[in-house]
Specification:
Oligomer: single chain
Largest sheet: 7 strands, parallel
GO molecular function: ATP binding; hydrolase activity; RNA helicase activity; RNA strand annealing activity
Keywords: ATP-binding, Helicase, Hydrolase, Nucleotide-binding
Helix content: 40-55%
Strand content: 5-15%
Shape: globular
GO biological process, one term: response to cold
EC number: 3.6.4.13
Structural class: alpha/beta
CATH topology of the largest domain: Rossmann fold
Number of helices: 18
Strand order of the largest sheet: 3-4-2-5-6-1-7
Mean pLDDT: 81
CATH class of the largest domain: Alpha Beta
Organism: Bacillus cereus
CATH superfamily of the largest domain: P-loop containing nucleotide triphosphate hydrolases
Number of strands: 14
Length: 458
């Protein structure tokens, strides 16, 4: 892919250009090249681009150029569907502010200390990055003032719709000035997103960027056909064989992710779990450890996929196949980042075939099948403890024969026990009779003999 312009040509100041170069970024991606001039002009924009195209910088750079550090008002609001994505965007902004300490950014999301958020909001906060629920909570408490807001960004709008945030987004937009600039970014354009744009945006300019090469050209994809019962063995076989540097394992539900984590952790794998039931503080620690390669395997749900942007991920395992194509693309996009290569392996059971067909149809090509000969692997329970091999089931004839043999054995045993009992009883009775006879015999003691002679003399 050829990038035609650098950021100076797009209107980005030398201060931010210097910071970009320090981070190894010298040329704009297609979404940046097309979106930045439009945003700088103040027009509303709809950007249709997938993860990994550089869309975050496409809206962050123009926002930073427009911030007035002398004002204490919240001037820009970025709304994201998940805490992970909100933190990722905040991190990107802070990277760009190393030479602009006069601009302040604050992330607002559930699981944080509310009192701490309130203290920071009372200070000079110019940019707020927030999740819908916690932001709406602050709006209703009147602890955030959006009356002088100049820019709002709805990032990953289709995912906010998927998570049920549509009404929250409408309530948030209703609390912002009509004069604001509105930006909406989404990988797909469902009907409700188009309705939202029509209602709240002013003649938005549409920018579409195709990024199929992100998922097809740089990522090797494979399918392993298996069953739900055999998935744990198949997964461990591939993990032991490939020895990934960093890997993300995706499960469909929190329960399945937690169960798989317990299984792998019990077997000694260096892994962690990431899903909605994990407390926010722990989630942040897990992500920090994963970025620092202190954790090798991250077991996650789709919610976590939206905020995962970690260099060095060599493998993605779809332990459960996603139910839609966009989720599949977002999942496997966790590897093969920044032009690097990656491997995505999807475990498919018979019931998953329709989802696989839809994915292959969208990609325009079948995904390579891999057949593995699974070795004998020690069975373990969900805590990683060995499970004893169950006794083989017996046929009806075997059970009947065992029953007859058991009856005969019991009969012989009863007969032997009866004979032994009779013999012991006979021996005891004989012994008692002998004792009785001995008791009735005249004693050999002298006293006894003399008494007997006296009786006879009488």
């Amino acid at each position: 892919m050829v990038y035609l312009k650098n950021f100076l040509e797009l209107g980005i100041s030398e201060t931010f250009n210097h910071t970009l170069r320090e981070n190894g970024i010298t040329e704009a991606t297609p979404i940046q090249e097309q979106a930045i001039p439009v945003i700088m002009s103040g027009k509303d924009i709809i950007g249709q681009a997938k993860t990994g195209t550089g869309k975050t910088l496409a809206f962050v750079l123009p926002i930073l150029e427009k911030i007035d550090p002398e004002s204490s008002d919240v001037q820009a609001l970025i709304v994201a569907p998940t805490r992970e994505l909100a933190l990722q965007i905040t991190t990107e902004i802070k990277k760009m502010l190393v030479q602009r300490e006069d601009i302040n950014v604050l992330a607002i999301y559930g699981g944080q200390d509310v009192a701490q958020q309130l203290r920071k909001l009372k200070g000079n906060t110019h940019i707020v990055v927030a999740t819908p629920g916690r932001l709406l909570d602050h709006i209703r408490r009147e602890t955030i003032d959006l009356s002088n807001l100049s820019t709002i960004v709805l990032d990953e709008a289709d995912q906010m719709l998927y998570f049920g945030f549509l009404y929250d987004i409408e309530d948030i937009l209703d609390e912002t000035p009509d004069s604001k600039q509105t930006m909406l970014f989404s990988a797909t354009m469902p009907k409700d997103i188009k309705k939202l744009a029509k209602r709240y945006m002013d003649e938005p300019q549409m920018i579409q960027v195709q990024s199929e090469e992100v998922t097809v050209d740089t990522i090797e994809q494979r399918v392993i056909e298996t069953t739900d019962r055999a998935k744990p063995d198949a997964l461990r076989f591939i993990m032991d064989r490939d020895q990934p540097f960093l890997a993300v394992i995706f499960c469909r539900t929190k329960v399945r992710a937690s169960k798989l984590y317990d299984n792998l952790k019990g077997l000694g794998y260096n892994c962690a779990e990431l899903h909605g039931d994990i407390p926010q503080a722990k989630r942040e620690r897990v992500m920090k450890s994963f970025r620092e390669a202190k954790i090798q395997y991250l077991i996650a749900t789709d919610v976590a996929a939206r905020g995962l942007d970690v260099d060095g991920v060599t493998h993605v395992f779809n332990y459960d196949i996603p139910e839609d194509v966009e989720s599949y693309i977002h999942r496997i996009g966790r590897t093969g980042r920044a032009g690097g290569s990656g491997l995505a392996i999807t475990f498919v059971a018979a019931k998953d075939e329709k989802h696989l067909e839809e994915i292959e149809k969208t990609l325009g090509a079948p995904i390579q099948r891999e057949i593995i000969e699974q070795p004998k692997i020690k069975r373990v329970d969900e805590n990683g403890k060995p499970v004893p091999k169950p006794a083989p089931k017996k046929s009806g004839q075997n059970r009947e024969r065992d029953s007859r043999e058991g009856s005969r054995s019991d009969s012989r045993r009863d007969s032997r026990n009866s004979s032994r009992s009779d013999s012991r009883n006979s021996s005891r009775n004989s012994s008692r009779n002998e004792n009785n006879r001995s008791f009735n015999k005249p004693s050999n003691k002298k006293g006894s003999t003399k008494q007997g002679q006296q009786r006879r003399g009488r």
